[in-house]
Model the fold of this input.
Amino acid sequence: MPSPAQSDQEGVSPSDPASIANSQTTPQGAGATATNAATNAATNAAATAASNAASQAGLPTTLSEHPTQAEAAAFDAVLKSCRALKEQYVDARISFYKGHTVLPRWMFRLAGVLTILLSVTLPALAAAIFPHKEIVLSATSIAIAALTGLSSFYRWDRTWSGNSSSQVALEQRVAKWELELTNAQYLQAPADRIMHLYQATNDLLTNASTIVSSESTGFFSGLQFPQQNTTARSNTPPGA
Done:
């Protein structure tokens, strides 16, 4: 009767291929597992380091954060619509203020200079002796009164100041809007880019409406019909 040791030896034949393969690959499999674990650890460490470097540089850290072609097309469509609104409602007002600033500035300065010169010249003309003196004095007095009345009625100083201030304010709002557009392009989530763009455009239109409304209110509040000078009439005797 064979012993247990002999039975075990007989049950596992040295010529069995499976047994030979298992006996030969077991140590190698353990070494491969250790190698894979070390490789995975090194890969994870490298990925973590790259992610940290990308975060510090302000770049996307995952591939999913890059916008797809459809998301980029949607952002470009929204950007185009926002620019169209800006050109229609903001750029048009800036062009209006630019075109209506030069004439009031020159009229205000011209009327002011002529009024000063004629007012200074009037006493000298009154003291001088020359032909047609009364006609010259009357014409000079009428010119001074006309320039003063026109300046008070048209308020060229108010128009110049209001248009210039509104133009500068709108240009500053547009510059801030352009800055927000640049900031929106660096946001990671595509939905956040579109929302940031919408919010910036909404703020621009709201602020532009407030600026234009304030300027219009200030302009029309100062309009008044010229009042006739009743002082001279009150000093005139009845029947004169």
